[in-house]
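Input chain follows. Return structure tokens only.
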Amino acid sequence: MLSGFQNSSVLVTGNSGFKGSWLSAWLLQLGAKVVGLSSSVPTAPSHFLAGGFSGRVDQEWGDVRSPQVCESAIKKHRPDFVFHLAAQPLVRRSYIDPHETFATNTGGTLNMLEALRLSGHRCTAIFITSDKCYDNVEQFWGYRENDRLGGKDPYSGSKGAAELLIRSYAASFFGEDSPVRIAVGRAGNVIGGGDWAEDRIIPDAVRAWSEGEVLQIRSPRATRPWQHVLEPLAGYLTLALRLASDSTLRGEAFNFGPPSDPSYSVSALLEEMQNHWPGAQWQDTSVLGAVYEAGLLKLCCDKALHLLNWRPLLSFAENVEMTADWYRAYYGKSRDIWELTQAQVSSYQRLGSERGAVWA
């Protein structure tokens, strides 16, 4: 199924980030021409630089907060597909600079929607928001796509607001007669090699453990829908191709996450990582008065199962093993990073064939 991307032009915003670089790697392996749009390389080190992505994609440097940047990229490249991932992705940073967070996550989404509206060429666009777009009351059952949007922190609020913009444009401008088709992908907490963002548990862990230090963590009992980065990317790619051929999916939102049961805590994640990282240690440094972060979050992915026939492939242990293997190769300097990334994409695709994935 994913062969439908061969020889297509694909614009990936936020391509220099963690998820964007993995998506670019997969699309390149599928034979797509990838155009990247990013304002900068967000971390040091980075998957983008370590893998030499700048020489493999048609790179545009620009900020999605600028309407002109978005319009220029769409007008110049007239992509067949757009994956909009550009974002300020960190909850704690959203408290420090809420204006940047809303301007990027909400304003950037508006700018890309408007660029597509003004261009009006045939295009399928997937807007990636977040599981944190939901008004999280820490319920024990997974959130469905029609549950209430919201967010107590600026990051979550910015994603909820972006969803309202997408819904409005889908209804007002991208209906049956429009050549532009849009849909939304929502994913949980992704893990995988090449993520070095601040205040994320796996990047914090590998930074500490690679230096022989003890990892200090804030919320060992918090649970999240952990999944390897390739899992939701498979969902986004599947959704894009299905949307291109099925107009009934216009404007729809889809959750892409692991099974809601069992749930795994931060401490469970770290204990599983320790199985692949000899000598790794961590300790709880939770403090009172820290900024609000949800303790419990689950997704219901039945819609993706029934309408797209998408389901996660990897077990919790497999998610962690792939992640640990990538970082150990990076810090051990034992593999070329581009080859390592492509090898993990190929391995995941083979697993998809063996386990009957619809996209394989």
